[in-house]
Amino acid sequence: MTVVSHAPDTGLWLLNTPHTSYALRIDESGAPCHVAWGPRLDPDQAAELAAPPSPPHSSFEGRPGVGEELPVDGGARFGPPSLQVRFADGTRGFEWQPEGHRLTEPAPGVHELELSFRDRVHPLRVALRYRVHEDSDVIERRLVLRNDADAAVEVLRADSAAWSLPPLPGYRLSHVTGQWSAETQLRREPLPHGETVLTSRRGITSHHANPWVMVDDGSATETHGRVWSAALAWSGSWRITVQRTPDGRAGFTGGAGHDGVALPLGPGEEFTTPVFAGLYAEGGFGEASRAWHAYTLAHVLPHPEEPAPVLYNSWEATGFDVDEEGQLALAARAASLGVELYVLDDGWFGARRSDRAGLGDWTASADRFPRGLGPLVKEVHRLGMRFGLWVEPEMVNPDSDLYREHPDWVLHTPGRARTELRNQLVLNLARPDVADFTYDWLTRLVGDEGIDFLKWDMNRAFSEAGWADQENGSDLLWTRYVHQLYGIIDRLRADHPGLRVEACSGGGGRVDLGILSRTDQAWASDNTDALDRISIQHGFGQIYPARTMAAWVTDVPNQLTSRSVPLRFRFHVAMAGLLAIGGDLNAWSPDDMAEAAGLVAEYKAVRHLVQHGALHRIGEPGSEAPTVVQYTAPDSGETLLLAWRAHERHGSPRVPVRPGGLDPAVRYRDTRTGAVHHGAVLAGYGLMLELPAGDWSSTSVHLVRDRA
């Protein structure tokens, strides 16, 4: 397969993935223009689509709002620009002048195309980068800016990419929205004409939106239909603008940053945007999700092949009331359940007795751990578990030794109030001295105490985002903060190759492909209510695989909802991701402990399917029918179904579920009942689930290839 091809006579470039094609051309003005994104094409077929666009109907129209490879500010363009710059003389705009291209293979099976341009008047260079992997339909795009002038350039907007869709009879937008404890609520709605902006202005990815979109023509389902999607690999503020034009086209542009913030680019400086990756799929939303999951496992996560351990976290059992004796007792209870990773949460350090004090003073409390953390870590290891620790490195309480010594280290604007959220302020990681301090104490803590795992939390958004002693600091910090954050984690993991990290920001406030490229999993929400989690996990899994989704079994009544749900139901919901336990084990009865141990063992027998299998969603959350998720091994010889029904209405019809991705020629045996099913029957006619009668019923069905 030729992955990247070029026709110099027409200026056409064609990028091929295993199932799709992406084509663009350099037009007569020197500007890069979109040609096609969809089913596979050969060069002749792509050339047929490369005709110049029709001229505008009137002088009021200008260039089309969709169809340029990277819309710029300048000329007769009136749509949302992907690139806006202001030069030292005050002029704005950009005119494309091609300077060449470069084709490379930075790794086996990876192909990269770089198209180089400069402005026709000013020495500002722009490179469009495209990367494709031979085993994925995902196309990675990013932008590189270089200022070769003697004066600074102000970058008002630098999106990573713009994606154009073909003309369709209609368009529907899929995305997620939410808030703290109610993240990733999936929305599918007709795309309105005009511009729809999804954004975070908070300095983090945010609970309220997530940087990805899917667009279809309104008829796609879980199993059928064409879907175009894109996801941004960035863990700070971001913006995606989806546009539907009056002439019946649609597209979207996205990148780091939000409106009102400019990036100064000094003489000789270069800026590379994060990846804004795109994917076209023909098999509906399910196929799109599976392609994103496979890409994340193959090309994003640091250690995707590892089975994630069953985790216990102490937070809901102890809150801030932690000490060595209590943690040792909990660790013994956790080990008896088959837990493999014990995580000590907040309250272990400094003067931390509530959320009002102690953040920033990262040494074990002498009165709670008089011998330090060493004895607890040693005992956890003796019990056969790894040891993890909760940290919040980006934060400081005003009531802390660190803040009293360095009040200038936080984000602040001179003369303005310092807004406290959760009684804390944000350390300015954009400052090299703050970043170095953070890295130093983290690497010492991990090395000295033998820490295997960090739950890295971040419990508030930015406010008063100033950097007083740095020129243009209030603009620079938004991107530099994220780059420094990435650098700290990268350095820490290089020092300690065995260290594993969970991304957390008050729940799901920092989940994106950027943070997942340097962590191992993510905390999806502080809401552990099993019923609410079904919807949260449904939205999370549209882009991100189960291998990244930490899911806890906690106590009832639930701390947030006061809802009581049977232990088995709670386990089955959590088993759809990375199973963890977060209840007060001291209060669990012998029967609860025995049932939990059995369910932990059951999960371990199937976690290879959950964490590395292909996801098929059967039934929407909130419907009368059971919600079912299925995980299938790549060779289709083994599959797992997890089903939940919150409420049963008397007389509701029982309808079989039809698993996906099975081999019709294979016979499958139910490991619990021994029943054998033909793959053709399961796929064509379905499987009748044996759900217990009544509310809060759930089940798991593990099918393996029958060798008889």
**β content, as a range?**
25-35%
* Tally of individual domains: 3
Can you tell me the CATH class of the largest domain? Mainly Beta
- Shape assignment: globular
Q: Which CATH architecture of the largest domain is right? A: Distorted Sandwich
CATH fold type of the largest domain: Beta-galactosidase, Chain A, domain 5
The poorly predicted ranges are: none
The number of distinct helices, counting runs of at least 4 residues, comes to 13
Describe this structure as you would to a colleague.
- The protein is of the alpha+beta class and 708 residues long.
- It folds into 3 domains: 4-299, Beta-galactosidase, Chain A, domain 5, CATH 2.70.98; 311-396 and 433-462 and 498-607, TIM Barrel, CATH 3.20.20.70; 616-705, Immunoglobulin-like (Sandwich), CATH 2.60.40.1180.
- Helix content is 21%, strand content 29%.
- The chain has 13 helices and 37 strands.
- The strands form 8 sheets. An 8-stranded parallel β-barrel has the order 22-23-24-27-28-29-30-31, surrounded by 5 helices. It has a 6-stranded antiparallel sheet with strand order 32-33-34-37-35-36.
- The protein is globular.
- The model has no long low-confidence stretch (mean pLDDT 95).
Topology:
Elements: E1 4-7, E2 12-16, E3 20-26, E4 32-39, H1 43-48, E5 83-86, E6 96-107, E7 110-119, E8 124-133, E9 139-147, E10 153-158, E11 161-164, E12 172-177, E13 185-190, E14 194-200, E15 212-216, E16 227-232, E17 238-244, E18 250-256, E19 263-265, E20 270-272, E21 276-281, H2 284-299, E22 311-313, H3 315-318, H4 324-336, E23 341-344, H5 374-382, E24 386-391, E25 395-396, H6 401-405, E26 425-426, H7 432-449, E27 453-456, H8 473-495, E28 500-503, H9 513-516, E29 521-523, H10 530-540, E30 549-553, H11 567-574, E31 578-581, H12 590-612, E32 614-618, E33 627-632, E34 638-645, E35 667-670, E36 676-678, H13 679-684, E37 697-705
Parallel strand pairs: 22-23, 22-31, 23-24, 24-27, 27-28, 28-29, 29-30, 30-31
Antiparallel strand pairs: 1-2, 2-3, 3-4, 5-10, 6-7, 7-8, 8-9, 9-20, 10-19, 11-18, 12-13, 12-15, 14-17, 15-16, 16-21, 17-18, 25-26, 32-33, 33-34, 34-37, 35-36, 35-37
Keywords: Glycosidase, Hydrolase
Protein name: Alpha-galactosidase
EC number: 3.2.1.22
